[in-house]
Amino acid sequence: MSDISHSDIKRVVLAYSGGLDTSVILKWLQVTYGCEVVTFTADLGQGEELEPARVKAKLMGIPDKHIYIDDLREEFVRDFVFPMMRANARYEGDYLLGTSIGRPLISKRLIEIAHETGADAVAHGATGKGNDQVRFELSAYALDPDIQIIAPWREWDLASRTALIEFAEQHQIAVPKDKRGDSPFSTDANMLHTSSEGKVLEDPWEETPDYVYSRTVNPEDAPDVPEYITVDFEKGDGTALNGKAVSPATLLIALNKLGRKHGIGRLDLVENRFVGMKSRGMYETPGGTIYAAAHRGIEQITLDGGAAHLKDELMPRYAELIYNGFWFAPEREMLQAAIDHSQARVNGTVRLKLYKGSASVVGRKSPDSLYSERHVTFEDDAGAYDQKDAEGFIKLNALRLKLLAKRGG
């Protein structure tokens, strides 16, 4: 934004949570740019009451027509979470990408609202140290290459929480009591997960305090009796829980409740941020962890081995693209097309056992199963498989190894 005159910006759409940081940003935009502000609050199932964001925006002079609070829960799960889950995506082998996958949808809606309201720019509250600034802005530019983006944390001189509070008090912005002290950690949440970072979590040697967890009971305190559930799939997407058809968001909500009850989905991770540093975070993905296990389970009997192994090779690249903010990039879309093609016959039912922090696949069945009990049985296979065929198979595969060995390596 350094080459853009403040006077060029007449109207800005702000990704607005209603919290202290984005309320300060709202006022800072009004003061610094002298522009109109349109607020956009996305309901991605974060579990918080969003109407207070409307009240706070109105108190800060935003007219009703410029306050957007959108329920995006079904779109979030159907068009972002499910496609990602078809790939079995995990960043650096563990992280189910809960924060990462929410950003492109928020950016998409920011751009749509900018077009609807004739705004010149969009603004976000991501800091200059994190991944989210990259995700928001790469997505925005992919959708509108001419959009202007304002990132206050990269512009202003409010370098501390104390400075933020002083600015808020100077401009009559209410500061909640819990914001006046030093927050023990920061959180971000949506329907898929809750992430916690900073302060008490910054020492990677120290165990995460139990009070940090908000989405799951301690697995040690979970029920002593396991619970069995079934999840049905059609073309790689979950469609029913315990035999009852449900929408994508409804399924994830129900799995979240089950995951909470059984302490499933906790992850303590030191990851490599796209901007170069390592960070330690604690993630809770209760329903997503159950769903990921179920999807993997149905693929085990419906997906050809070659296709399954190729998917596993593509997955780290796909996960990295999402983590780094390239959801709307052509390479992610190309990979998605291949992944979606693989899911055409991923249909059937998975049975899972939920018990003290684990979600284990204990049964799977499908009308499109490639599993042949007749071929794998240790009993008489009635001629389905001639074991003598294995001799030639082994000899051909051993030929190059034998030649190497005779040469001495």
Account of the protein in words:
The chain is α/β, with parallel strands linked by helices. The chain has 2 domains: 6-73 and 100-182, HUPs (Rossmann fold, 3-Layer(aba) Sandwich); 187-303 and 345-365, Argininosuccinate synthetase, chain A, domain 2. It is 42% helix and 19% strand. The chain has 13 helices and 14 strands. α1 (20-33) crosses α6 (161-170) and α3 (73-86) packs across α8 (248-262). The longest helix has 20 residues, at 98-117. The radius of gyration is 25 Å and the shape is elongated.
Quick overview of this protein structure:
The protein contains 13 helices and 14 strands. With 409 residues, the protein is of the alpha/beta class. The protein folds into 2 domains: 6-73 and 100-182, 3-Layer(aba) Sandwich (Rossmann fold); 187-303 and 345-365, Argininosuccinate synthetase, chain A, domain 2 (Alpha-Beta Complex).
Shape: elongated
The CATH class of the largest domain, by name, is: Alpha Beta
Element-by-element helix/strand order: EHEHEHHEHEHHEEEEEHEEHHHEEHH
The chain-level structural class is: alpha/beta
Give the number of DSSP strands: 14
Bin the strand percentage: 15-25%
**For the report, how would you describe the main beta sheet?**
5 strands, parallel
User: If you average the pLDDT, what whole number results?
Assistant: 93
Question: Total helix count?
Answer: 13
Distance between the termini: 60 Å
Assign the CATH architecture of the largest domain. 3-Layer(aba) Sandwich
Q: Predict the CATH topology of the largest domain.
A: Rossmann fold
What does the radius of gyration come to?
25 Å
Strand order of the largest sheet: 3-2-1-4-5
- Tell me the name of the CATH homologous superfamily of the largest domain: HUPs
